[in-house]
Amino acid sequence: MSIRTAIDWHQLLSSKEVQPADILSYYAERSERLEPAIQGYLQRFETPVQQTTSNWSIPIAIKDNICVKDHPTTCASRILENFIPPYQATVIQKLLDAGLPIVGKSNLDEFGMGSSNENSAFHKTHNPWNLEHVPGGSSGGSAALVAANLVPWSLGTDTGGSIRLPAAFCGVVGLKPTYGLVSRYGLIAYASSLDQIGPITRTVADNAALLSLIAGHDPQDSTSANISLPDFSARLHQPIKGMKIGVPKEMLGDGIAADVRQAVEKAVQVYTELGALVEEVSLPVLPHSLAAYYLIATSEASSNLARYDGVRYGYRAPNAKNLREMYQRSRSEGFGPEVKLRILLGTYALSAGYYDAYYKKAQQVRTLLIQAFNQAFESYDALLAPTSPVSAFKMGEKTSDPLQMYLTDILTVAANLTGIPALSVPCGFDTQGLPIGLQLMAKPLSEPVLYQLAHAYEQATDWHLRLPPEVN
Question: Is the overall model pTM greater than 0.85, yes or no?
Answer without folding.
Answer: yes
